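Subject: sequence -> C-alpha coordinates, single chain

Hey, anyone have a minute? Need the predicted structure for the following. Not urgent.
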Amino acid sequence: MKTIIALVLSIVCLISAECIATPLGTVTMSSSGFGAEDTMTIWGGGHDGLNVYAGVYMFNKTAGTDQGQSLANGYIGGFCMDLSEYIASGSNTYDVIMPQDGPRPTTFLGGTMGTQKAAYLSELWSKYYDPAWAVVGSYTSQQNSNAEAFAAAVWEIIYEDLPTSPAGWDVTTDGTLGNGGFKAENLDYLTANNWLHSLNGTGITADLRSLSYIGSQDMLVVMPGTIPEPATVALLSFGFLLIMRKKISASNA
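Reply:
Had a minute. Here:
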Protein backbone atom coordinates (compact mmCIF):
# COMPACT_ATOMS: atom_id res chain seq x y z
CA MET A 1 0.00 0.00 0.00
CA LYS A 2 2.81 2.45 0.90
CA THR A 3 4.46 1.75 -2.46
CA ILE A 4 1.23 2.53 -4.29
CA ILE A 5 0.75 5.81 -2.37
CA ALA A 6 4.34 6.87 -3.10
CA LEU A 7 3.86 6.09 -6.80
CA VAL A 8 0.63 8.10 -6.95
CA LEU A 9 2.31 11.07 -5.24
CA SER A 10 5.20 10.90 -7.69
CA ILE A 11 2.79 10.96 -10.64
CA VAL A 12 0.94 13.94 -9.15
CA CYS A 13 4.25 15.76 -8.69
CA LEU A 14 5.23 15.16 -12.29
CA ILE A 15 1.89 16.44 -13.55
CA SER A 16 1.67 19.51 -11.34
CA ALA A 17 5.40 20.35 -11.14
CA GLU A 18 4.62 22.04 -7.82
CA CYS A 19 5.61 19.37 -5.28
CA ILE A 20 8.31 20.53 -2.90
CA ALA A 21 10.06 19.30 0.17
CA THR A 22 8.13 19.63 3.41
CA PRO A 23 7.93 23.36 4.30
CA LEU A 24 10.35 24.48 7.01
CA GLY A 25 7.72 26.69 8.58
CA THR A 26 5.29 29.44 7.66
CA VAL A 27 5.17 33.23 7.67
CA THR A 28 1.96 35.24 7.75
CA MET A 29 2.43 38.68 6.21
CA SER A 30 0.90 41.36 4.01
CA SER A 31 2.42 43.67 1.41
CA SER A 32 3.37 47.14 2.66
CA GLY A 33 4.88 48.71 -0.45
CA PHE A 34 8.48 49.12 -1.54
CA GLY A 35 11.86 49.85 -0.11
CA ALA A 36 14.52 51.09 -2.50
CA GLU A 37 13.29 50.52 -6.07
CA ASP A 38 13.08 51.88 -9.60
CA THR A 39 11.26 51.00 -12.82
CA MET A 40 12.60 48.86 -15.64
CA THR A 41 11.25 46.92 -18.60
CA ILE A 42 11.43 43.11 -18.51
CA TRP A 43 11.00 40.10 -20.74
CA GLY A 44 10.50 36.84 -18.86
CA GLY A 45 8.03 34.85 -16.80
CA GLY A 46 5.41 35.22 -19.53
CA HIS A 47 5.91 38.99 -19.89
CA ASP A 48 7.00 40.71 -23.09
CA GLY A 49 8.25 44.25 -22.55
CA LEU A 50 6.45 44.85 -19.24
CA ASN A 51 7.30 47.95 -17.19
CA VAL A 52 7.71 46.92 -13.55
CA TYR A 53 8.86 48.27 -10.21
CA ALA A 54 12.02 46.39 -9.30
CA GLY A 55 13.89 46.41 -6.02
CA VAL A 56 13.01 45.60 -2.40
CA TYR A 57 9.45 44.55 -1.62
CA MET A 58 8.38 45.31 1.95
CA PHE A 59 6.01 43.13 3.97
CA ASN A 60 4.52 43.37 7.44
CA LYS A 61 4.97 40.01 9.20
CA THR A 62 2.45 39.23 11.92
CA ALA A 63 3.02 35.54 12.68
CA GLY A 64 5.24 32.56 11.96
CA THR A 65 5.82 28.91 12.74
CA ASP A 66 9.04 26.87 13.01
CA GLN A 67 11.76 28.60 10.93
CA GLY A 68 9.29 31.38 10.19
CA GLN A 69 9.59 32.41 13.84
CA SER A 70 13.24 33.36 13.25
CA LEU A 71 12.04 36.32 11.20
CA ALA A 72 10.91 38.98 13.65
CA ASN A 73 7.40 40.37 13.37
CA GLY A 74 7.26 43.73 11.64
CA TYR A 75 8.76 44.88 8.37
CA ILE A 76 10.59 42.35 6.18
CA GLY A 77 12.39 43.25 2.97
CA GLY A 78 12.81 40.74 0.16
CA PHE A 79 13.28 40.33 -3.57
CA CYS A 80 10.79 38.83 -5.99
CA MET A 81 11.71 35.37 -7.29
CA ASP A 82 8.52 34.74 -9.25
CA LEU A 83 7.84 36.77 -12.40
CA SER A 84 4.70 34.88 -13.38
CA GLU A 85 2.55 36.14 -10.47
CA TYR A 86 1.72 39.46 -8.85
CA ILE A 87 1.77 40.36 -5.16
CA ALA A 88 -1.45 39.24 -3.48
CA SER A 89 -3.50 41.71 -1.49
CA GLY A 90 -4.36 41.23 2.17
CA SER A 91 -2.69 38.94 4.68
CA ASN A 92 -1.49 35.54 3.44
CA THR A 93 0.43 32.61 4.91
CA TYR A 94 3.61 31.73 2.99
CA ASP A 95 5.57 28.48 3.19
CA VAL A 96 9.21 28.82 4.22
CA ILE A 97 11.25 26.70 1.80
CA MET A 98 14.84 26.52 0.61
CA PRO A 99 15.49 28.69 -2.47
CA GLN A 100 16.49 25.68 -4.56
CA ASP A 101 12.98 24.27 -4.12
CA GLY A 102 11.37 27.32 -5.76
CA PRO A 103 10.07 29.47 -7.17
CA ARG A 104 6.48 28.28 -7.47
CA PRO A 105 4.86 27.96 -9.94
CA THR A 106 7.66 26.46 -12.03
CA THR A 107 5.93 27.06 -15.38
CA PHE A 108 8.75 29.01 -17.02
CA LEU A 109 11.62 27.03 -15.51
CA GLY A 110 10.47 23.48 -16.19
CA GLY A 111 11.20 22.65 -12.55
CA THR A 112 12.71 24.19 -9.46
CA MET A 113 15.86 26.31 -9.82
CA GLY A 114 18.20 23.79 -8.16
CA THR A 115 21.14 24.05 -5.80
CA GLN A 116 23.69 25.67 -8.12
CA LYS A 117 21.52 28.68 -8.87
CA ALA A 118 20.60 28.92 -5.20
CA ALA A 119 24.31 29.00 -4.32
CA TYR A 120 24.90 31.89 -6.72
CA LEU A 121 21.97 33.79 -5.21
CA SER A 122 23.45 33.27 -1.76
CA GLU A 123 26.82 34.60 -2.87
CA LEU A 124 25.24 37.56 -4.66
CA TRP A 125 23.32 38.47 -1.50
CA SER A 126 26.33 38.16 0.79
CA LYS A 127 28.50 40.37 -1.44
CA TYR A 128 26.16 43.09 -2.66
CA TYR A 129 22.91 43.30 -0.69
CA ASP A 130 22.61 46.55 1.27
CA PRO A 131 20.32 46.45 4.36
CA ALA A 132 19.72 50.19 3.91
CA TRP A 133 17.53 49.33 0.91
CA ALA A 134 14.95 47.84 3.30
CA VAL A 135 14.93 50.53 5.99
CA VAL A 136 11.55 52.24 6.00
CA GLY A 137 12.04 55.82 4.84
CA SER A 138 13.46 57.65 1.84
CA TYR A 139 16.25 56.46 -0.44
CA THR A 140 18.87 58.12 -2.61
CA SER A 141 18.78 57.74 -6.36
CA GLN A 142 21.88 55.56 -6.11
CA GLN A 143 20.21 53.23 -3.59
CA ASN A 144 17.16 52.93 -5.84
CA SER A 145 19.36 52.20 -8.85
CA ASN A 146 21.42 49.58 -7.00
CA ALA A 147 18.37 47.81 -5.57
CA GLU A 148 16.89 47.65 -9.07
CA ALA A 149 20.15 46.23 -10.47
CA PHE A 150 20.17 43.64 -7.68
CA ALA A 151 16.62 42.56 -8.60
CA ALA A 152 17.67 42.14 -12.24
CA ALA A 153 20.65 40.03 -11.17
CA VAL A 154 18.35 37.80 -9.07
CA TRP A 155 16.00 37.26 -12.03
CA GLU A 156 18.92 36.61 -14.38
CA ILE A 157 20.20 33.82 -12.13
CA ILE A 158 16.78 32.25 -11.62
CA TYR A 159 15.34 32.41 -15.14
CA GLU A 160 18.34 32.01 -17.45
CA ASP A 161 20.05 28.73 -18.20
CA LEU A 162 23.32 28.51 -16.30
CA PRO A 163 26.16 29.81 -18.50
CA THR A 164 29.47 27.97 -18.74
CA SER A 165 30.87 30.65 -16.40
CA PRO A 166 29.41 33.67 -14.54
CA ALA A 167 31.01 35.89 -17.22
CA GLY A 168 28.29 34.63 -19.55
CA TRP A 169 25.48 36.33 -17.65
CA ASP A 170 24.02 39.47 -19.25
CA VAL A 171 20.77 41.01 -17.99
CA THR A 172 20.25 42.75 -21.34
CA THR A 173 20.20 39.53 -23.38
CA ASP A 174 17.88 36.53 -23.25
CA GLY A 175 20.19 33.57 -23.70
CA THR A 176 17.65 30.79 -23.03
CA LEU A 177 15.65 29.02 -25.72
CA GLY A 178 11.90 28.39 -25.36
CA ASN A 179 9.64 29.98 -22.75
CA GLY A 180 12.41 30.52 -20.21
CA GLY A 181 14.99 33.25 -20.01
CA PHE A 182 15.14 36.85 -18.90
CA LYS A 183 16.27 40.25 -20.11
CA ALA A 184 15.71 43.85 -19.05
CA GLU A 185 16.08 47.44 -20.21
CA ASN A 186 16.09 50.87 -18.55
CA LEU A 187 18.35 49.98 -15.61
CA ASP A 188 21.98 50.16 -14.55
CA TYR A 189 22.86 46.95 -16.36
CA LEU A 190 26.61 47.51 -15.98
CA THR A 191 26.33 47.22 -12.20
CA ALA A 192 24.07 44.16 -12.43
CA ASN A 193 26.42 42.44 -14.88
CA ASN A 194 29.56 43.35 -12.91
CA TRP A 195 28.04 41.81 -9.79
CA LEU A 196 27.08 38.65 -11.68
CA HIS A 197 30.49 38.32 -13.33
CA SER A 198 32.24 38.52 -9.96
CA LEU A 199 30.50 35.41 -8.60
CA ASN A 200 32.56 32.26 -8.26
CA GLY A 201 30.79 30.13 -5.64
CA THR A 202 33.29 30.86 -2.87
CA GLY A 203 33.52 33.18 0.12
CA ILE A 204 30.90 34.24 2.65
CA THR A 205 27.37 33.17 1.72
CA ALA A 206 24.02 34.24 3.07
CA ASP A 207 21.51 31.79 4.54
CA LEU A 208 18.54 32.51 2.29
CA ARG A 209 14.95 31.26 2.30
CA SER A 210 12.07 31.51 -0.12
CA LEU A 211 8.68 32.64 1.19
CA SER A 212 6.34 30.84 -1.18
CA TYR A 213 2.60 31.18 -1.73
CA ILE A 214 0.72 29.96 -4.80
CA GLY A 215 -1.22 33.01 -5.93
CA SER A 216 1.42 35.58 -4.99
CA GLN A 217 5.02 36.29 -5.87
CA ASP A 218 7.60 34.22 -4.00
CA MET A 219 10.09 36.30 -2.03
CA LEU A 220 13.80 35.77 -1.39
CA VAL A 221 14.80 36.74 2.16
CA VAL A 222 17.80 36.25 4.43
CA MET A 223 17.66 34.58 7.82
CA PRO A 224 18.76 36.88 10.68
CA GLY A 225 22.37 36.85 11.82
CA THR A 226 23.68 34.62 9.04
CA ILE A 227 26.21 36.98 7.45
CA PRO A 228 28.42 39.65 9.00
CA GLU A 229 27.65 43.29 8.29
CA PRO A 230 30.34 44.97 6.09
CA ALA A 231 31.76 46.81 9.14
CA THR A 232 32.08 43.51 11.02
CA VAL A 233 33.93 41.93 8.10
CA ALA A 234 36.32 44.90 8.06
CA LEU A 235 36.98 44.57 11.82
CA LEU A 236 37.56 40.84 11.52
CA SER A 237 40.04 41.42 8.68
CA PHE A 238 41.83 44.12 10.65
CA GLY A 239 42.06 41.85 13.68
CA PHE A 240 43.47 39.05 11.54
CA LEU A 241 46.15 41.38 10.17
CA LEU A 242 47.13 42.44 13.70
CA ILE A 243 47.47 38.82 14.79
CA MET A 244 49.59 37.96 11.75
CA ARG A 245 51.82 41.03 12.33
CA LYS A 246 52.41 39.98 15.94
CA LYS A 247 53.29 36.44 14.85
CA ILE A 248 55.75 37.73 12.26
CA SER A 249 57.33 40.11 14.80
CA ALA A 250 57.68 37.28 17.33
CA SER A 251 59.31 34.98 14.80
CA ASN A 252 61.82 37.67 13.84
CA ALA A 253 62.69 38.49 17.47
